[in-house]
Design goal:
The protein is α/β, with parallel strands linked by helices. It has six helices and 14 strands. The strands form three sheets. A six-stranded mixed sheet has the order 1-2-3-4-5-6.
Length: 208
């Protein structure tokens, strides 16, 4: 894939979404914060699929809108399915928001190789920030779409329902750090970083 991966930041909590070129000339979107539909339309892209790192509100804000706009599949872990299909799910957590549920959809689990619209990923299940958090590794480019597991100088918060600090730290150390210091991390919030930088200096999970 000669075209570059592009990033959109928007929605309630300045959440990052990424557009990955496909062999057919379309795009895969990773996560769906507010504004992502207008962003992709403005570039004239055909969105072939949407991958969700997890089902927290800010990452799925426009998931149903993406699905409607391009009639494309949505991929997610089964542990987040109830948040994607039940329009009142977040109200049960005290968040008064109208969120359109997706229809259909495809569940994904951890696997060394999954191909979506001609693009191959290694899929890693790294819960702790929330159940069903997935990270997607593009080995040829050494890029990790990390969602809210690992940030530049931080980690995903674990004080929300289903959060587990020990589980998240163990997942980062056992699954993400071994990917290699030169792997670039594209997180769900904030700037990119690298596995090496976080392994050495991250105050929550690093060596220092």
């Amino acid at each position: 894939m000669s075209q570059r991966i592009e990033m959109h930041t928007g929605g309630w909590f300045q959440t990052n979404a990424f557009a990955v070129p496909t062999p057919a000339g379309g795009r895969l979107l990773v996560d769906a914060p507010g504004g992502v539909v207008d962003w992709a339309r403005g570039r004239g892209w055909n969105v072939e699929a949407l991958l969700l790192t997890h089902a927290h509100l800010d990452h799925i804000e426009e998931a149903a809108a993406v699905q409607r706009a391009w009639n494309c599949p949505v991929y997610y872990h089964r542990d987040g399915e109830f948040l994607l299909r039940d329009k009142d799910a977040f109200r049960r957590y005290g968040i008064d928001v109208d969120l359109d549920p997706i229809t259909g959809g495809e569940t994904m689990d951890e696997t060394p190789s999954a191909t979506v619209c001609g693009v191959e990923f290694r899929v890693l299940l790294v819960p702790g920030h929330c159940p069903g958090s997935l990270c997607f590794l593009r080995a040829p480019e050494k890029l990790l779409f990390a969602g809210d597991t690992l940030f530049a100088g931080s980690i995903g918060r674990t004080d929300l329902p289903g959060g587990d600090t020990d589980l998240l730290l163990r997942g980062i150390r056992e699954k993400l750090f071994p990917l290699g210091d030169d792997v670039r991390v594209l997180p769900g919030h904030g700037p990119p970083t690298t596995i090496g930088e976080e392994r050495r200096t991250n105050p929550f999970v690093g060596e220092r």
